[in-house]
Amino acid sequence: MVGVGVFNDLSIKQNYLSKRCNYLYPESFFYVPLYRMQLCAPVPIPIICEDVLQNTPNYLGRDYHGSISHTLANNLLKPHPDGAYLVRSSRCANGEFHTLSLKFNDKIHHYKLFYDPKYGLYVREKRYDCVRSLVADGLITMYLELKVPHMLERLPTANYLESPYMTLNKRKLRALSKNHLKNNNYKSSFLTTSGTDDIPLPQQILNPQPPKIEKSHIFKITTFKGLNWCELCGNFLWGFTAQGVKCDDCGMIAHTRCSEKFPNDCVPDLKYLRGVFGIELTTLLTAHGSELPFVLTKCVAEVEERGLQVEGIYRLSGFYEEIDAIKMALDKDGEKADLSLSKYPNINVITGALKLYLRLLPIPLITFQVHPRLIDAIQHKNVDLQISSIIFSLKGLPKAHYDTLMFMIKHLAKVASFSSVNKMTPHNLATVFAPTLIGPPESTDSCIPDITCDILMIETLIVNCNKIFNIDPK
Predict the structure, then answer these.
(1) Which of 234, 284, 306, 321 has most Cβ atoms within 10 angstroms of its Cβ?
(2) Nearest residue to 82 (alpha-carbon basis) of 121, 40, 50
(3) Which residues make Cβ contacts (< 8 Å) with residue 404, sequence separation at least 6?
(4) pLDDT score, position 406
């Protein structure tokens, strides 16, 4: 019911955790006072109702005493030690509700219980399967707040630069730096020009700087099993449920309050990513140490090799089963996935997979913040002013989005250059890609949105690709 493993008795469980901590952390055990304080917290002692009650709610057990008075509840709890509790019915002007009566610090406390049929009992973000679990977790928090309030107050003031997470983060950034140098393909001949050894090396080789990470952590409330410590302040994550938060992308663990101190420097770890479709773009590229998503580079390579002269390219749809098979292959095998002619002779399933990838991005390639700026930019009648405004607006995109958008627009411009054969003019391509690159509107209005301006904007990007992205035409 509560805690770790199959234990049902909290005292046995606490004894087990104490021995386990001594075994796993023989040195650090003496520096985790929050953990030791948790072991000293009172355990739940349910006061059992001896009467058989009718219509007892299914989320309450034998600790439910029905409609008893405040005074009677106090009298039932007084003879028992801290941790004793019972549940009773109470009434107010708004109707009937359930009250938890709990003895702590030799005083009787009364709390209103909140229940949701979908999530069960809850206190703020925490969820519980029964009252005993709620009491066990609450007693620990109340005990810590009573005994070590100074420690709890200091939690969110921990020094980020000296935190355990930052130490690990530096290792990850160094690894990214090495991958960055490798991906940029620095050759030994470049380092030894003219066969001499006294030529100074480029500054970026002597002191390689890792790529700038500008990505926020994706924190989610998590119930941890076993013993866990906050990676900011280094203190124990106390409690039996929803003890803290964990980042979906890098796995960082922290107290909820401590997590607010972390800047936007998440370094995603591939082991936390499930496939590539539906993964936020900056997260994916940072985790893979690449500049462009391989899904797009592989699909575009196939299209440019065998699809530029196919009539209706990108407009025609392939078979859903084959598109789904490509998606599964790319999610599972990554860059090793086979998209060759022998495997998928119908090029339309390749383009279908490409469009599916863009549609499934949690944040569309042209973000909701930049989209209105681009719409304003294309309203200018003066072409030079229009293009300069577009260039300025695109600077608001995250780097991953900007680079990927430039790659896609350059590709679409190449497809459009064969429009006499494939019948896909810049306007036709813009009609296909406007909802894909921009995504659905944030409005919940059920009316079909007017994407006329979006189509014009994408068409403008394609037609003026070289000027907007400063590409040297070959």
Answers:
(1) 284
(2) 40
(3) 281, 292, 293, 296, 365
(4) 95
Retrieve residue 217's tokens: 């952590």
Look up tokens 């229940």; give the residue: 115
Distance CA 269, CA 68 (A): 54
Task: Please answer whether residues 252 and 217 qualify as being in contact, where contact means their C-beta atoms are separated by less than 8 angstroms.
Answer: yes
Residue 205 structure tokens: 């080789």
- Under 8 Å between Cβ of 357 and 293: yes
- What residues contact residue 305 under an 8 Å CB cut-off, 6+ apart? none
**Helices assigned H by DSSP within 25-118:** 33-40, 70-77
Q: What angle in degrees, to the nearest 10, is found between the helix axes of 294-306 and 320-333? A: 130
d(CA 26, CA 40): 19
Side-chain-facing half-sphere of 273: CA atoms under 13 Å: 23
CA dist 135 and 73 (Å) reads 16
Is-above-0.70 flag for pTM?
A: no
Separation CA 399–CA 396 (nearest Å): 9
Q: How many CB atoms lie within 10 A of CB 214?
A: 14
At residue 383's C-alpha, the angle toward residues 381 and 384, to 5°, is 125
Does residue 185 come out as left (phi exceeding 0), alpha (psi in the -120 to 50 range) or beta?
A: left
Tokens linked to 306:
């065998």
Report which of residues 213 and 352 the model is more confident about: 352
Of 84-98, 212-226, 269-283, 333-347, which one has max mean pLDDT? 333-347
Give residue for tokens 């300069």. 388
Contact 152, 144 (CB under 8 A): yes
Nearest to 302 by CA among 411, 383, 167, 377: 411
Distance of alpha carbon 326 from alpha carbon 353, whole angstroms: 7
Burial (0-12, 13-18, 19+ Cβ within 10 Å), 289 = middle
CB 386 within 8 A of CB 429: no
